[in-house]
Amino acid sequence: MDPSGSSSEGPGGKPPARPQKPGPWPPRIEPFFANKDHNPWELMSWARRTGFNPNHSGETASVVSDRDAADEQNSARGLDLERGIRRRGDGVPRKPEIEPVAGRGRTNRGVEIGPMVPGPGAGPAARSEKEKRKVGVEPPAVGLKDERREAGEETPLRIKSDGPEGNGHGNGAAAISLVKADEDSRKEAGKDEREVGKDEREVEIDFFSDGQEPEDLSGYKPPSGFRAGVTENPGLVPLIFYGVQHYLSLAGSLVFIPLIMVPTMGGTDEETATVISTMLLVSGITTIMHSYFGSRLPLVQGSSFVYLAPALVIINSEEFRNLSENKFKHIMRELQGAILVGSVFQAVLGYSGLMSLLLRLINPVVVAPTVAVVGLAFFSYGFPQAGSCVEISIPLILLVLIFTLYLRRISLFGNRIFLIYAVPLSVAIVWAYAFFLTAGGAYNYKGCSSNIPSSNILSDRCRRHEITMKRCRTDVSNAWRAAAWVRVPYPFQWGFPTFHFRTSLIMVIVSLVASVDSVGTYHATSLLVNLSPPTPGVVSRGIGLEGFASILAGLWGTGTGSTTITENIHTIDVTRVASRKALEFGASLLILFSFVGKIGALLASIPLALAASVLCFTWALIVALGLSTLQYTQTASSRNIIIVGFTLFISFSIPAYFQQYEPNSSLILPSYLVPYGAASNGPVHTSSEGFNFALNGLLSLNMVVAFLVAFILDNTVPGSRQERGVYIWSDSKRLDTDSSSLEPYSLPAKVRRYFWWAKWVGL
Length: 763
Description:
Strand order of the largest sheet: 3-4-5
Mean pLDDT: 76
Radius of gyration: 31 Å
Distance between the termini: 58 Å
Strand content: under 5%
Shape: globular
Number of strands: 7
Structural class: mainly alpha
Largest sheet: 3 strands, antiparallel
Low-confidence stretches: 1-8, 32-38, 54-218, 732-737
Helix content: 40-55%
Oligomer: single chain
């Protein structure tokens, strides 16, 4: 009799056989003290969100799971992942290890997961009982075992696998069973499971079930708190609401680029309205295309700020500065040609598979400063333009900050309307306020007409008030009066594109920077919506489609290329909606609105100071989203600190050197356009004028310099793969074993049937 009172004799009264010393198989599981609040989901959830795999660096990193911020006990529990769980088809299992928390249990306790060997007839409908017995348990020291028996706490872990057909989800994920068994049942591998069951108390915890029945084959589960996952259809009424909501929260990013570009190009208010309508059309079409044939993530495609700076460089080239007749159309055709060349390069980069090779060199340390600089580059435009009418710009900036920071937790009808609709609400309130100021005569000056600038150029007194009247009044735009109610944007509406080597070279390099921006957005979005990070094939497919989308933008003439809008990450986070169906419905509305000319005219009538105030917030958000990419690296690493800090500084210092050369023009450029005049007057002088223009222009762009410097330093300075965050971006053997988390990336069956030969079709 052992101290616990149970018999130590084997069957037939014979003493039990002496336990043999375990070999390398079966793997052993050491006992540990009962931990009532230990949740195995924490291990897998954290791993799935980050793609953590220390195998690359050979290091063991302890991290703190923050899956549920409200649960302090769970967030305080440290998890140590030594190896990844094997994927289907791997020959050698990888083993995660759970280290104890101080004061909660015994050290050196661990879990080793054996291979998931499929048995005959394995599947959701027919689970073999013998398959459950995959891992043996080494008997612990007798004294400790007896103490645990007396306390009723003995719960060694046994791993159960459902085989390749899975645990009812079709994903082959392993489940953990808490088993109480004696040494004899653990030694006899051939013993019938029903006999083992006499001495077992089993509780099954499925990593991916999330409370659903085993018969549910849906696989993908949205993160907690989300109203609709990527593949979910919330119903007609919620679909309409979520679709409109998503695009309203992105309003500033979708329509404000033409308010900057078109006046700089010499365009009229009517042309501004037409460009806005064209952007809505292209954005709607390309978003639907990306939802079906691209990365299939819930991301909006549209005119990106990545293309704004190079467009301003081309607009301010010397040959266009002194044009007076048809200046807008000349510049637009030049932009169209450059965008088409850069888009073809981007499409080839994606669909040829070259992007998969480039992904090995693009890591979070490269993406973070590159994206951040896209927003920082416009600091000279932001408040200098908004400050031209402080009466409306400062109230707008304050309203956006109050809504997004101080009132963000206020919920009405289950929606945080102040956080989600911060931009459209602020614009509507301040625009109405500006209308009352205009109607009340706040900007009326004796002898000066609101018809700016033609009627005031002859009067010195009126010329002093010209900027105030133009930026503050709500009745100076002629867009509403000139725009037609119905107008369908069409390709080549500005004329046939013109092609030049110098501008095309600039857009080729910029399309590469835009691809880097999209790579960071893909990964951040996938982790946010609880999907595995996209595989190289998915990323290549998405980049290829973005190139095709930019071709459409070049043909229709939006003035910029089309790419993934970075701010979409923030929108998904605050709306808690990631449904592709909602985005597709909203995109359909954009297409419909693009045919109504008055809608584009209404947006074109927004006072410029008001638009600049919104962009101060939007560009700041891009900076924050870019720097947040560093969370996937070891941010305290001196290597990363130096690389990111030096990149940010030099990306402003080098362009400042090129921008100090004064433009040779009889016209005085506005201060905010001077940095974009360096292409024609920079310090690079060779025998090729086109090459001089391209190189001076590229080195005056902050984001291009940031990308080049970060790319070179990150790939030449030694550093562990975990330190650099490589395990998230380029590891093909991720910790996640749930193949259903990759299913949302799959192309529709009919598309796969016709493009089975292409590498980018696969996952």
